[in-house]
Amino acid sequence: MSEFYPFGNRAGLRTTFSLGMGFVIFFAVVPAAAVIAISLTDIRGLPGIPVNWVGIENYVTFFSGAKLGYNVHALWNTLIFAFSVTIFQNFFALMIAVALSTKLRGRTFYRAVVFMPTVLGVTVIGLIWSLIFNPSAGPGATIWSWFGADSAFFGDQKIAMALVIFVQVWAGLGLAVVIFLAGIQAIPEELYECASIDGASGRKKLRHITVPLLAPSFTANVLLCIVGSLQSYQLAYVLTGPNNPATQVLSLAIFTQAFGGGTSSGSVASQGYAGAISMVQFVIVGIISVAVLLYLRRQEAKT
Amino acid sequence: MTTLVSAKPANRVEPSSGKNRRRPRRGLFSSGKLVSYVFIFVIMVLYLFPLGFLMNTALKSTAAFNQDPVGLTTSFQWGNFAEAWQKGHFRAYFLNSVLYTGAATIINTVVSLVVGFPVSRGYVRHPRLWYGIFVAMLFLPNALMTQFQLVLRMNLYDTALGYILIMASGLGVGPLLLVGYIKSVPKEMDEAAALDGAGYWRFLFTFLPPLIKPVLATIFILQAIGVWNDIILATILLPDSAKSPITLGLFAFQGTYTSQWGLLASATMIVAAPLVVAYVFLQRYLVGGVAGSVKG
Lengths: 303, 296
Fold this sequence. Notes:
By secondary structure, chain A is mostly helical. Chain A has helices at residues 11-38, 57-62, 65-101, 107-120, 122-132, 139-146, 160-185, 189-197, 202-213, 215-231, 234-240, 250-259, 271-302. By secondary structure, chain B is mainly α. Chain B has helices at residues 2-17, 31-58, 62-67, 79-87, 90-121, 127-136, 144-153, 160-169, 174-182, 187-195, 200-211, 213-229, 232-237, 246-256, 261-295. Classes of the chains: A mainly alpha, B mainly alpha.
């Protein structure tokens, strides 16, 4: 492969490539790999405290009676969050992308609007929606009152998770729409023209041309979304705080274990135990994403 | 909001550049199109209402908000912005964020370029393996603890440098987008530049960037969004509030002025404004960059 190289001297290439990769490996890859190592120690968030090798003790703690209930609950929340977000986000993103691909007037503008939350970021989005779902007064409370109901919204254990899922879908839709639109634009126009000549209706064209040919974009979107949402917790952190049981997901548990989340344990928090949670989560993410990938690939081959 | 105004000219151009095919004569809208319009209208309300409500609240005084939180504002309290800016010490936070975002994003984009280009061209051995590594890097486990320990042990804890280095090292999809996009630049360009006597570095840093502007802009803005909006790593690595980025400033502001929604909404808009402005200018590159890389 590397025979063709027009620039003569390879020294320049070698220098920049190894500097670049070295930088990334040192600050991102090595720390990620080192999570396994620290999960076997009792390392803490303070310098100068001796670090002891404890073997699999952290993992035993994770699955022990005292913690198991809490951890299963966090795992369950994570799965509900990830699967709901993935399903709703991809469903609506596909609908929007298909609608926008039908040459609507002003579609570039609609696309820009839907993409906007991607730019705004977690803190801003969090504040916007806490403003809307302000329990004492706000549009959310007004709408609830039409049905004679009131709610503490993000403070309500029953619906906090549903609201966080809603806001996450709202925030993440834009990128998925852009990926679907790119996929739709790559479908040759002739296919639709042929189908029209054969008398296919709009809905038939959607089912037999657009959806099957979008399969690769669909796989990419679903995979990105499921991996992202299995690991995401920033929105739950901003909207409901670090210690809300209703929205406690595994990643948030890692954060609160390792850094105290501002309230309880503080800097003595065990980062070794947090490392163990992180590894358990990594394995779960790995299993689910490989399973989803294999399933979607098989579907792609079928159509 | 500003985007609404400035995004418009771009979409005016697009329909006319498409093929001038005659529409089937079924009135103004076919039924399918009507459904699309209604659906998109509902989506637009879901997206524009929260932003409009934020703006409306930002222009209300606390008294007016308490009286009628949902109604349109009658007196325009532009002073809210100045007050929030002052009370929240946003000047200092803003400058911190500009420094972090600027430095981390530039490093990040350059690194994506220097590792992505040779892999795309096959100038390094085993390009497929390197590409696989770029993909694998997206799926790394949560490494907050170890990155914290690394920074701590390098004596960079609570320093701007430590934070910038960690933020810059998260490449995300950058190299992948770049590898995809560079495939659309013919290899003959490399040869021609080399024949003209350009070395590798000169080609990489002066000839190539203008040719791949859309993807560089995409990487730059995606990364800038990520750094500007980060709260987690900043919480962990920068405990000194004088070094806080603007997002943490906003978070602290929210804690202090809990019920003063006018001020809080103004502060939120102050934090969002720079990215929204950058997005308006770069959005045509952004979509082109993503689309171009996916196709390649």
